[in-house]
Amino acid sequence: MTHRTARPPSRPPSDRGTARSWPGPALWALFAGTAVVSSVLVLRRPGWERLSDLHIYRGAVRHLQAGHPLYDYAAPNGGPFTYPPFAALLLGPIGPVPERVVQLVWLALTCAAVAAIAMVTGRALGRPDRRAVIVPAIACALMVSAPAQSNLRFGQVSVFVVLLALVDGVGLTPARYRGVLVGLAAAIKLTPLLFLVFFLFSRRYRDAVRAGVTFLACAALGAVVLPADSWTFWAGTVLNTDRVGNLASLGNQSVHGMLLRAGVDGGTLPLLWAALVLVICGLALLRARQLQFAGHGTHAAVLVGCATVAASPVSWTHHQIWPVLAAMLLIGAYGIARRVAGMMLLTVLVFSLGVLLGDVALTPGMQFLFENSRSFAVITVCVTGFGGLTVAAVVAGRRTSAARGWLRVGTAATVAIAFFAVQPLPAGADPTFKAYALTDVPNPRYFFVCRSRTQCAEFGAGAPIRFGRATEPTKVRISGVVDATIHRLEYRSAPGGAARDIPLLPVYPGQWLFSFRSASLAHGQLTAYGVDGRPIATYGSELQGG
């Protein structure tokens, strides 16, 4: 007689399906909740900083529709319209609509675009039956990242440009239309033109032709409808990157921005930047070509997107969605080293390491590493291409042991930190420099010499400029007051270094406050200029307390 072991009764199929599928809906609910909370917080911000870029778009469109030159427009915060004329035509419908309606619709579309980007990226990870969990997990991670939050906060168009380029780069559009979305994205912002080069590299010649034709058609449409504005843009404005703000600020995490913060000489900067961009983009395109031929189009498209972030002269936080997607692909790869690298990359893109780790940065070099961590991370992704061919390990089924993976990651991180800890920066470098604005005045850590009209009048009374200093482990802060005889302040970290204007803030009648921080004042020089533009006084040793 054959005896069979009794099996426990199994749950009905419907119960098993429910048990397996609940994480997906729960994660989508978490994404929706995060999106709603983020949008509400954006709408609760003060009016002057709520969706400020969207305000510029709408204001520029209304300015244009009223018959004025597009590129003469300046928003109340001084922000100009920086995109090609075609972008203004595309944004035309928002002009007549009430701004609050435009804001609500824009926030909803931004959240929808984040979800769509997650859906496209999730196709490259895991088995189809697991994507019901993977996709909303990616959406949640992307939503809480600094780039997505920045798109929401400023009402930026970047998230839509990324979506268009990603869908086309992956090849999800019908074959006869592939390349059209990249051309459209490039007509709004020029950086997706690198995808056209990628199409050529990966032998997608028809896609490259469609992308180029679409881009030129959009530019031609802009020229026909807005001839004068098109001439203004393509004949000069397109090269005037200073219109978009201070490119040396920490928000610009491109290679160009990092070189500016490193104090590279102005004559050397263009050639050095061009050489680095050529190497970084060349390596990224070659690796993307390998990935494309291996059948991993999502990895290839994201890698090209990361190259656009590194190569562009201006890569604000809202441009940096591509590295978040790279982090998702690394986390979903085989091998502990790649997964840990993906988590580290995601951490860099969620938190500001310069602020978070500022107290443990023992040298200016370490602070420079932390404050430029997103630049270094994007460059690393471009050069290594997801740690070599990530997909090669997947296809071959090779896996690195956990111990060896942790050893690789730990060794690489230790070497990087040690290198920057001892690396002498150029004399003019100022990795922590920041000049504070009117919105920073309430912070007593920044404006510490006086906190009222009376205190400021009494502080160093009789002198045209008075200031104090506060020393911290990795930076020194200067805070002071000037009177009406001072028209402008200029600071140089070292002789021959880049000149930085220090804003004079009209806080009290007849008194203007200023504050800035620097990595070191050892070679710093502060110059005060009068209303006639001539220097009144220069301070060097006084900055060091001498």
Tell me what portion of residues adopts beta-strand conformation.
Answer: 5-15%
State the helicity in percent bands. 40-55%
Overall domain count: 4
Number of helices: 23
Please summarize the sheet with the most strands. 5 strands, antiparallel
Distance between the termini: 101 Å
Q: Averaged pLDDT, please?
A: 84
Number of strands: 9
Unreliable runs? 1-19, 388-400
Structural class: alpha+beta
Gyration radius over CA: 26 Å
Shape: globular
Task: Provide an overview of this structure.
With 546 residues, this protein is an alpha+beta fold. It folds into 4 domains: 24-152, no CATH class; 157-235; 248-426, no CATH class; 434-544, Immunoglobulins (Immunoglobulin-like, Sandwich), CATH 2.60.40.10. Helix content is 53%, strand content 9%. It is built from 23 helices and 9 strands. It has helices spanning 13-21, 23-43, 52-65, 85-90, 99-122, 131-144, 146-154, 158-170, 180-188, 193-201, 205-225, 227-234, 255-261, 269-293, 297-311, 321-331, 336-350, 353-356, 364-371, 373-384, 390-396, 402-422, 453-458; strands spanning 434-435, 465-471, 476-482, 488-492, 499-502, 505-508, 511-518, 525-529, 535-539. The strands form 2 sheets. Strands 1, 2, 3, 6 and 7 form a 5-stranded antiparallel β-sheet that branches. A hairpin with a 4-residue loop joins strand 2 and strand 3. It is globular.
